[in-house]
């Protein structure tokens, strides 16, 4: 921070597309746990929306007793909460699937984390009331456009089942790391849905509607569905909860290093419970050792972990990391292949050469 040299050695995002803008975080080179918004990955389905903020209003309508339109000023005055959340795109690590799947070829950096501040959705719903026949809550984003597979124009819209929508940690966020949410990440209001993959956290919220049936928009009935079969849609089921997962940040793949002691470091995260164990193997998975990982701290962030590796024999090595969570879920050796390439969470690997 104080060292002027540090300014000359800053990581940047890796670009997968510019319109829409899709960029991944330099996950191997993060120095803090609450990432600056400049290093936060960006995942967009459309060009950025044009908004006029001077009169920004958030309508909540549909199956409510009293439809309401909230002003930003009203929302920021309500009791807020701040939660640390790791937001992971369902397409994170897609490039690792074999056979390859279509879509942005994300490496390991479609995940970022920091502190989100906002109002629990339940607080806003206390003001509108809910009808007994409300089944889902629909969030519409301001961005829209044509899809290659369907003829109509669609906005980015997704629903949540009541149970998830009414979770006290599902928030309508207006700050990231104590600053207004940057425009590209959903300013002025975005949904934050902890424990679900990033597609649920709708940016630039235009309106919220309570509905009586299952929403079938393409961003949850065509995309963000696991299709286990290449040829047909049998066995399809929706992408929701984040899988237990880990990533080796250092060393990077194909590093050349000296003999001696090296710190292997990385992150581990899950959408159910807490990370309870991180194991590391330096011999292609034959033997596993416990890595040191941060204790669970009641947030939805990732756990950083480290493992000291002493190596005296030159040669090629496969380093692996495997996380387990408090629900007993653990990373499989083989990924769960699915046609659209979502939810990759096989044991992480990097290959290094010791000289
Ligand atoms: N309105 C809107 N919300 C959106 C998206 C989008 O394209 N439009 N992309 C979703 C997806 S797939 C992810 S992974 C996250 C990415 O959030 P970020 O761009 O702030 O990293 O936003 C989600 N919310
Ligand atoms: Mo995503």
UniProtKB/TrEMBL annotation:
Which GO biological-process labels does this protein carry? sulfur compound metabolic process
Q: Which Gene3D superfamilies match?
A: 2.60.40.650, Oxidoreductase, molybdopterin-binding domain
What range(s) does the Moybdenum cofactor oxidoreductase dimerisation domain occupy?
240-343
Q: Where is this region: Disordered?
A: 1-22
Molecular functions (GO terms): heme binding; molybdenum ion binding; molybdopterin cofactor binding; sulfite oxidase activity
Q: Does the record carry Metal-binding as a key word?
A: yes
Domain Oxidoreductase molybdopterin-binding: where? 45-218
Q: Which UniProt keywords apply?
A: Metal-binding, Molybdenum, Oxidoreductase
Q: What is this protein called?
A: Sulfite oxidase
